[in-house]
Amino acid sequence: MMHYQNYLIDAINEVLTWDIPDEALPDAVIAQASLMARMNPEEIMQLSSD
Asked: Which residues are CB-neighbours of 49 under 8 A, at least 6 positions away?
């Protein structure tokens, strides 16, 4: 399984095409990157807080 960081640029590019409020972008990027990496978003949040 690839690390979610490998998907961040693709996730950002994808999320920027969505019609969502700016304040929702960080969570949406994390969620999208986790889907692309086949990880649970909570795992990513835990990794980023370590």
From this structure: none
Distance CA 43, CA 50 (A): 11
Q: What is the longest distance spanned by two Cα atoms in the chain?
A: 31
pLDDT at 1: 47
Amino acid at 39: M
Look at residues 33, 48, 45 and name the one whose alpha carbon lies nearest to residue 2: 33
pTM above 0.90, yes or no: no
The interaxial angle of helices 8-15 and 25-37, nearest 10 deg, is 130
Angle between helices 41-49 and 25-37 (to 10 degrees): 110
